[in-house]
Amino acid sequence: MSKLSAGDVCWAQDPTDAHPQRPIVVLSHDTHPFSATDCTVMCIGTSAGKYQQTTPELRDEHLNGISFNNTSYLMPWALYTIAPGSIMNGKTKGELTEDGRRLVKKSLISLIP
Q1: CA pair distance 30, 72, nearest whole angstrom
Q2: 51/61 Cα distance (integer angstroms)
Q3: Three-class SS of residue 7?
Q4: What is the pTM of this model?
């Protein structure tokens, strides 16, 4: 598997075990010191529920090369280090736009009190 860049959006085996697979945003892989075994990701979900304040909606203007059928949200508290082999190579892959990158950064910063 080739290394993914920060901001890539793709499908992986669900690290939360809530579903068989889920979309993720790559936070670190190609620059990760243990990239052969580790890839740091943020999960994407389809509901915000009571976490609406810290779960920003991921809109089409935040994405290039990929779109979702359902309304999707960044899950900044759902950060995982996963094995690169758990990323679904055959699934659609896209990337964040500059607006999408700002949204990810803002959502991570919002978690710091």
Answers
A1: 25
A2: 22
A3: coil
A4: 0.88
Cα diameter, the chain: 39
How far is CA 50 from each of CA 47, 53, 55, 93, rounded to the nearest angstrom?
Answer: 9, 8, 9, 29
Residue 24 Cα to chain centre, angstroms: 3
Amino acid at position 50, single letter: K
pLDDT by position in tens, the chain (length 113): 577 888 999 999 999 999 999 999 999 877 767 767 788 999 999 876 666 667 899 999 999 999 889 999 999 989 999 998 898 865 678 999 999 999 999 999 988 88
Closest CA to 45 of 18, 75, 66: 75
Cβ proximity of 12 and 24 under 8 Å: yes
Give the list of residues 6+ apart from residue 66 with CB closer than 8 angstroms, or none. 9, 10, 23, 92, 93, 94, 95
> d(Cα 102, Cα 84) in Å, to the nearest integer?
25
Residue 79 has which token pair?
């950060």
Q: Look up residue 53 and give its two tokens.
A: 């304040």
